[in-house]
């Protein structure tokens, strides 16, 4: 342990006692720097989430405040309940499912969709407090978990390309390349390449810089107006249009199984994967490969989803971008506290956020690049084993082709046990997967 780290908290400071800085070999300066690093890498959600959810008719400014509130609440929970340097925010992919599949695709009101998010969060809390959590983790095959994450990445990348006009509909081929002579698609393409290049150079906040650079380019060319002011007091009236508007009875009438289950499954497995992945990099796992205080970390995530639905946003989940702060030396909840404070301060820069939102090509690079990053896990699928590879492939390809996260998950769960049974490997499949496959099949048979 360095002399600097040993000196931290030697005076019995409150920060050291609460976050155990000395015990974790870190300092206040290191934790704050790590928190700012994490904020920079995930601040794009401030622009992207309101842009996606406002397509359902939700007030943009209201969702902006809800996004920040849910992010700060969840991240502070992680800090004080689990003392980990992980940040939480409305999840990419789940916000797309909320907007494009549930609300716009199935005609469900956004109030009812928020009710479904609330129910999924309550179930997540119950699972976290019981041993059922371990049963589910052990039941679902790793190949499907990985495929779901990769498929969501491909799906949101497709949405980003579509919003920017990089991909357009075509009567002959269904989809085609957009007109790159037009400023929108061209700037989106250049912004995506810039973002990818910055990521390759390991530039902190690469996604955020990509968004801002594309927006500024659009403004300089006259395609997006400059804001009249930079700083603005958050509008509580705007927030009131989405806060507390969830329709829980409507969600129950809608059909408990599919929509709530998708919200739950994606959040559950995404959180588990992120916690394990980032914790492995940080050295948090014990000698048995388990994460200490895992229940507290999962509970933070679950409670954040419940809170997020109440304040007006889609499912909140632990962000893999937390790894950037861990790489910068973050080891305790003080890193998470720093992230939360930075997000709250960002509320006062709403005019800039609106400027970005008014120019869809600006957020397209974030969606496309984040999608690419989510696809990185696809190498963990056992491609040499067709009984594992084919269901994973069906999951990945079905999401963008059907424009539905729920359909991709359902087809994956149906195909997995069927292929295993045909190949004589049916005993490898947990009974719970068979049950889910039957339920998903009945959904297609009776609900279309």
Strand content: under 5%
Average pLDDT taken over every residue: 88
The total number of structural domains is: 1
Helix/strand/pairing class, anyone?
Answer: mainly alpha
Number of helices: 22
The SSE string, one letter per element, is: HHHHHEHHHHEEHHHHHHEHHHHHHH
Radius of gyration in whole Å, from Cα?
22 Å
Q: In percent, how helical is the residue content?
A: 55-70%
Largest sheet: 2 strands, antiparallel
Task: List the strand order in the largest sheet.
Answer: 1-4
Outline the structure in words:
The chain is built from 22 helices and 4 strands. The relative contact order is 0.20. Mean pLDDT is 88; it is low at 1-12. By secondary structure, it is mostly helical. It has one domain (24-447). Helix 9 (142-163) packs antiparallel against helix 21, helix 20 runs antiparallel to helix 21 and helix 21 crosses helix 22. The strands form 2 sheets. The protein has a two-stranded antiparallel sheet with strand order 1-4. A two-stranded antiparallel sheet has the order 2-3. A hairpin with a 3-residue loop joins strand 2 (167-170) and strand 3 (174-177).
Summarize the SSE layout with pairings.
Layout: H1 3-7, H2 14-19, H3 28-42, H4 44-53, H5 60-82, E1 88-90, H6 94-103, H7 110-129, H8 132-139, H9 142-163, E2 167-170, E3 174-177, H10 183-200, H11 206-220, H12 236-240, H13 248-254, H14 258-282, H15 294-311, E4 316-318, H16 322-327, H17 333-346, H18 350-357, H19 360-374, H20 386-402, H21 405-422, H22 431-447
Antiparallel strand pairs: 1-4, 2-3
